[in-house]
Amino acid sequence: MRRRPGIAGLKSAAAARDQYRLVGENVARIRADVMKEQLETFRTQLEDFARKHKNDIRKNPTFRSQFHEMCAKVGVDPLASNKGFWAELLGIGDFYYELGVQIVDICLSTRSHNGGLINLQELCSLLCQRRKVAREAVTEDDCLRAISKLKVLGSGFEVISVGKKKLVRSVPTELNKDHNEILEVAQAQGYVTIEELEKRLSWSSGRAIDALETLLKEGLAMIDDGHRDGKRRYWFPCVASIFSAPGSDGFRSL
Amino acid sequence: MQRLGDFKLPHFFNYPPYFTLQPVRETREKQVQLWKELILDYCRSQKIFVISLEEDFPLFSNPVVERSLSHEARQVFLAALVNEGRAEWIDKSHKKCLILWLRIQDWADYILNFVKENGFEDSVMTVEDIRFGIETRGTELAGIDRGVLLRALKLLEQKGKAAIFKGTSADDEGVKFSA
Fold first, then answer.
1. ipTM tops the 0.90 cut
2. Can you tell which superkingdom this protein's organism belongs to (chain B) (predicted)?
3. Which residue of B has its CA nearest to A224?
4. Do B110 and B95 share a structural domain?
């Protein structure tokens, strides 16, 4: 374009700029509208789905976990906010917050027995006992979800894996690798002996005693000098609890 | 659930480490607490007033898990009850212990309540009537330790709620309740 001098030239350049801007805004608006429309459709679809299967989601634990999986895939977190339409629609937020409160309660009330470390399986069965009236089945998956929501409180709730089992930690105790390995060995019978640790993990007795002393101090272990072989046993209530149903834990087979 | 006669034992009774005194303070406190409750509950349900450390006591060993309390552990648990006023050493060598699953004051209140509910105000009962008579059958008073009963009655006497008087023989004391 040939540059035109003078006021007329400046004016036409400004007019052209305005035109460009208008066109640009239009394009952006159209795009946003399309997006909004898509979002709206997606939302209504999800709402429709949730409404249709509301009862299944609330009552059927398998369905619930599949629903969560689906939500996770499309990047929606039904638990993210209690104000969202999910909460209003399903009360699903409330469900997990309620579970969370009950989990905290169970962890606190059993802390003096297990030192703040509890088997997920046991936590779940205690939870079910407590919720008998609610009749909605609660799975370990639900427990894990509720616990993950508790993390925002910064209260140190955490799920750790020890061997095949998952343990829920409600105290800020840091367990190192040695402690984890001891807990893993203890899962077989509910207790360990120093000799057993030396043999199974090829540790020196000093290493075993050190780690066991720490676990004792943290209230995670209890000593037992009463066996007739005279060897001290270290019991771990978090892996074989005194609350478990008869026959389900190791020490009963003694 | 394991039972001892008609007594339902708590879960911890089958967990072996509870039979060894725990070295860590918090764990020990919890352990002592559980044993204190168990001893009081058991004695109450079986109407046991005296525990002798020298003799076998069904609570102090569990054949199912093959564990029993050491002499030291027994003494620690009973001493904890003594500290709380829920038990008293009978002898200086701490071998026999009187278990007060109701404190003397509570026994006095219980007796007063019994008297009121059954219309024994202004009537006379002998100590043996209260312990083994038909009137107290089915109440906590049936089979009550003689010493405990007399102490509760004396407390009532101090409050002017009862008057104790001697009968013809030494173990034939009578008591007159007043409203």
1. no
2. Eukaryota
3. B17
4. no
